[in-house]
């Protein structure tokens, strides 16, 4: 169990956004549910930062990427009373509502693709809930690069993805994917082989822009792909509203790490040694992720085998399989005996 720092929740009686904005952001216009989910997301952020030994109060310049109408921001307090929090979103109406009603927040409208309206190294913390879960790979890579641009060296970014749990829930509740014209098994195979699946015919088609639909990520994809942009510090399954996975990343303090393991010697100075340690830590994270992926694959195969072994057809054909094994064993025995019989001298 992680010991949480002092919660970052702000105690205030700020107004709630109108119903249609709450519905657009949370998928439900219930006021209590909107407020509660925002507080839960702040607690999720606190837990994510605590997992790497940090707390929200340490960060002076904070940005929420994809802030909507302030579901999370309205519950946060800046590290200092005089400071502001920042948010960006593609929804101009939501951005305008924040600027008119949340005095501690400065929000800006952005387009579906970069850039952000900030200079290089503007923030030391960027957080987000459920944007990567709606973008395809081209958009994701573009935004990872842009978020790295505005994050300071050593800065932290938290992002959420729809992982294995969210995928299974989607299959069970949406019956997958009649709208996308592919079967449950085909979608599962795609996620396993590609590490990501993007569904562009979903319930969001008439609500959001054409680039904003549904994406699911496998843990191995995040470890392999996103570490091109950041160092991965923590991965928390179901760490966001007990549904999406939470990913904690850090911008390297030195130049981009290399793909191959570094040479350990010689290390010319302290900075050189720190670089080597950083790269070795990254390699460790990648190998741990691959091991986790292998374990997931093994569990998947074992589950499928159990399904087969408990099926009626498997039980009914058991005698046939036993007979086949006996025949195979007999053939092997005959093949082993035949050379010996050929070498026997009858005289």
> Helical segment tally?
10
Would you identify the CATH H-level superfamily of the largest domain? Vaccinia Virus protein VP39
> What pattern of helices and strands is seen along the backbone?
HHEEHEEHEHHEEHEEHHH
What would you report as the Rg, rounded to the nearest angstrom? Answer: 27 Å
Strand order of the largest sheet: 3-2-1-4-5-9-8
From the structure above, extract its key features.
single chain, Rossmann fold, two-stranded antiparallel sheet, disordered N terminus, alpha/beta, disordered C terminus, 347 residues, 9 strands, seven-stranded mixed beta sheet, 2 domains
What does the model show?
This protein has helices spanning 19-26, 31-50, 92-101, 137-150, 164-174, 184-194, 219-225, 270-309, 312-316, 318-343; strands at residues 62-65, 85-89, 105-109, 123-127, 151-161, 196-199, 214-217, 231-240, 244-250. 44% of the residues lie in helices and 16% in strands. It is built from ten helices and nine strands. It folds into two domains: 19-253, Vaccinia Virus protein VP39 (Rossmann fold, 3-Layer(aba) Sandwich); 268-347, no CATH class. With 347 residues, the chain is α/β, with parallel strands linked by helices. Strand 8 (231-240) and strand 9 (244-250) form a beta hairpin. The protein starts with 18 loop residues before the first helix and ends with a helix. The chain is elongated. The longest helix has 40 residues, at 270-309. The strands form two sheets. It has a seven-stranded mixed β-sheet, with helices on both faces. Strands 6-7 form a two-stranded antiparallel sheet. Helix 7 (219-225) packs antiparallel against helix 8 (270-309).
């Amino acid at each position: 169990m992680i010991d949480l720092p002092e919660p970052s929740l702000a105690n205030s009686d700020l107004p709630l956004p109108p119903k249609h904005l709450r519905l657009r952001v949370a998928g439900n216009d219930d006021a209590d549910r909107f407020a509660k989910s925002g507080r839960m997301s702040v607690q999720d952020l606190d837990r994510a930062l605590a997992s790497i030994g940090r707390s929200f109060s340490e960060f002076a310049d904070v940005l929420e990427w994809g802030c909507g109408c302030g579901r999370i921001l309205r519950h946060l307090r800046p590290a200092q009373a005089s400071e502001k929090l920042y948010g960006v979103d593609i929804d101009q109406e939501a951005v305008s509502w924040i600027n008119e009603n949340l005095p501690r927040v400065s929000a800006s409208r952005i387009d579906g693709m970069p850039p952000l309206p900030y200079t290089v190294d503007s923030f030391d913390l960027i957080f987000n809930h459920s944007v990567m879960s709606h973008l395809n790979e081209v958009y994701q890579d573009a935004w990872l690069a842009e978020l790295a641009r505005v994050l300071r060296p050593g800065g932290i970014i938290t992002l959420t993805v729809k992982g294995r749990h969210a995928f299974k829930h989607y299959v069970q509740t949406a019956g997958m994917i009649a709208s996308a014209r592919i079967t449950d098994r085909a979608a599962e195979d795609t996620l396993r082989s590609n590490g990501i699946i993007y569904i562009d015919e979903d319930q969001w088609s008439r609500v959001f822009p054409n680039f904003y639909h549904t994406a699911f990520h496998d843990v191995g994809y995040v470890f392999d792909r996103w570490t091109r942009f950041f160092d991965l510090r923590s991965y928390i399954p179901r760490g966001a509203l007990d549904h999406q996975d939470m990913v904690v990343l850090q911008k390297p303090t030195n130049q981009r790490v290399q793909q191959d393991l570094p040479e350990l010697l010689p290390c010319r100075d302290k900075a050189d040694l720190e670089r080597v340690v950083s790269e070795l830590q990254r390699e460790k994270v990648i190998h741990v992720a691959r091991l986790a992926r292998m374990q997931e694959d093994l569990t998947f195969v074992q589950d499928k085998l159990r399904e087969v072994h408990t099926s009626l057809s498997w039980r009914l054909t058991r005698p046939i399989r036993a007979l086949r094994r006996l025949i195979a064993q007999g053939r092997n025995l005959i093949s082993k005996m035949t050379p010996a019989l050929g070498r026997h001298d009858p005289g």
